[in-house]
């Protein structure tokens, strides 16, 4: 293959990853040009001032000049606003938490941006994602094809588990994947930094971006308040007593216990603190065992549940098992009392063993399950986390401590019309059950799970309870290191 005849457009962001990707493409002999995209034109919502994207563009242009490739600029702010930002506003208004970077890749980088690049003669689009791509093979060893006869491709996790970014590409189609190149997918971050330094690239020492792709570090509340109006409501702390009588929680406990071997109880609370910490150990790799290719889907171990019992669950039981606990039954009544020597008449909330009103917020839509920062709530020994929000009543429910029962769930559901198979030939049919590895957010170590395809949705039953299952976020499933499909978590 004569690579000099393949014209590649690299999405150059000004960061070290896309810079090294561009350099490698040039060294391999491709006909390369760079293009920087502007995705947002409102500087009021960024945290670093009004010219952050301009600084990134300046660095990107210097990188292109250093490598010796043409550099172009395209403003996709209009497309981003209509296809990503408006979706974000709508999702947050419904109490769901979308992932803008997943949408940006599907709608902008590998669609709007790709179309601009193709008009400029590009055959392929390259990015600095840490992931890999190769040809899919049929069981007989021949190259697999799509229904239209085109080659079928696999999307694989990056070889560096600490930087794998395949999650962000989980909504790509086979058509989009066919046009994609990921030059640094076989590398780890230190090697990328080393190559950048040796080549004296202007981005070699640039810190990794922590913001939304091609926008920058965004003040999310300010961003959302462009469309969503603040509205003061109560913050309710939920006590452990609530779970002793809540019908939904008791149903989950009873159902999960029924799936276990006789005499064993199912775990209801996870013990991990974050993607890099556990309450038991310091090294995340000791807690989440790496996958085992000899097991179905690469799962690290067999399921703790009896598979025949899992398979026998009805659609109705699975649906209910996937539903989050509702806290609407916790109500508060006011009472009057007299205070002080003058017996001034005042009002207060009656004590409730299930919970307590502990503060106010500026809008339930601005808070997400698992959130800790930004609550402004003190007076607790352990951290306080959001466990649910009620959009109709404008209430935010919180719980104290990493082991709070409201933080953990074992089952989630994806609506049938929102399930996306990047490998359509491996899509599950109603009634089918498979063991695969799943993550529900970027950087989460892959979790062993059982997927059940039913007519009323695709269900994910995790081997261990999961912290912060958040409606709107994408659940992504893998067979060993191949990403097979994804979909937004239903409420």
Explain what you see.
With 491 residues, the protein is α+β, with helices and mostly antiparallel strands. The protein folds into three domains: 3-224, HUPs (Rossmann fold, 3-Layer(aba) Sandwich); 247-324 and 406-488, Elongation Factor Tu (Ef-tu), domain 3, CATH 2.40.30.10; 327-403, SH3 type barrels. It is 23% helix and 25% strand. It contains eleven helices and 22 strands. The protein has helices at residues 16-28, 52-67, 77-93, 100-119, 174-178, 189-198, 220-224, 247-259, 284-287, 307-311, 315-321, and strands at residues 7-11, 31-38, 71-75, 124-126, 131-135, 153-157, 180-181, 233-238, 272-274, 277-278, 334-339, 344-349, 355-361, 384-390, 395-400, 408-414, 420-421, 433-439, 447-454, 457-467, 474-479, 482-488. The strands form five sheets. Strands 5, 6, 16, 17, 18, 19, 20, 21 and 22 form a nine-stranded antiparallel sheet that branches. It is globular and about 85 Å long. The chain starts with 6 loop residues before the first strand and ends with a strand.
* Share of β-strand residues: 25-35%
Biggest sheet details: 9 strands, antiparallel
Which structural category do the helix and sheet elements fall into?
alpha+beta
The structural domain count equals 3
Q: What's the CATH first level of the largest domain? A: Alpha Beta
Compose a concise summary of this entry.
With 491 residues, the protein is α+β, with helices and mostly antiparallel strands.
Helix-strand layout with pairing:
Layout: E1 7-11, H1 16-28, E2 31-38, H2 52-67, E3 71-75, H3 77-93, H4 100-119, E4 124-126, E5 131-135, E6 153-157, H5 174-178, E7 180-181, H6 189-198, H7 220-224, E8 233-238, H8 247-259, E9 272-274, E10 277-278, H9 284-287, H10 307-311, H11 315-321, E11 334-339, E12 344-349, E13 355-361, E14 384-390, E15 395-400, E16 408-414, E17 420-421, E18 433-439, E19 447-454, E20 457-467, E21 474-479, E22 482-488
Helix pairs in contact: 1-2, 1-6, 3-4
